[in-house]
Amino acid sequence: MLRLVLVTELLVLTMMVAVSGIRAFDWEGFALLSLFVLWIVLSSAALLCSLRKFLARLGLQWAVTAVFVLILAVTAVFSLLADWVLAGGSLHNTRFEVDEYGLLRNLLVSAVMTGLVLRYFYVQAQLRRQEQAELRSRILALQSRINPHFLFNSMNSIASLIATQPETAEKAVEDLCELFRASLRDSAESVPLQQELELCRRYLAIERLRLGDRLHVEWQVAELPEQARIPLLTLQPVLENAVYHGVQPLPEGGLILVVIAADAETVRIKVVNPMPQAGARRDSGNGHRMALANIRDRLAALYGERAAVEQLSENDRFITRISLPC
Question: Going by DSSP bridges, is the β-strand pair 266-274/317-325 parallel, antiparallel, or unpaired?
Fold first, then answer.
């Protein structure tokens, strides 16, 4: 509404300056013309808004034609109404005559401006559709780089358990299926935060089969609002990163701390994992940065500047902080 009013006033100001100039600017005429044009613009917007479901079912050409007809009809009605009011506004006024040239002028101006606005919206819609296609392909490319790369280790662990612990092996297969089912879903899909946490617990259960007592996880999850939702596979890659680059290189293993809090607007995630010495794993630092860069790019593609991914090293610990809209 604010944009409509501002654009309308700019149009009226331009018309008045072109007609009366700056020195002899007609403020009364500016006020009357503003009132007249605003009635047309806001009434047309309200009418089109109420008919948007009907217009959406039409093809592009028919929808454009319908919009033109509706706006020209509104312009004609208010033009006749303005002439009637200026002539006295009485039902018994015999002096009221239709200003045919004024009506034609108003219809021409309305048609030109409607065509410009429709063209602007069409180009904007095409640009948005192209941006969404590029965004989806970018997210899918990032998702393919975030997908779990522990498949072979997991299958080896499951194979070793089939003979001795068949129930554990069966549970691991179910967890693995859930993980890969999630990785094949739309990565821009928003899921409840509790669902993402359950997926992370399944992942850690699989890794615990391989690492045993070397892997310890502490969860500090505050009470979460029901509307707390995050993109699918946001936290799981961070934990995978912590296991692969933090716990696995250490012979004694280590502790991963997960702290999660959320309010009505923001979800805040903090993951702390041990950081091996430089010689323990040469690619550890690069691995951390590359994995988090992928996550940062994915969240930036979805939320822009409203999401943030921070990383820092502190006393042989690697800390990852993520904040994103709820």
Answer: antiparallel
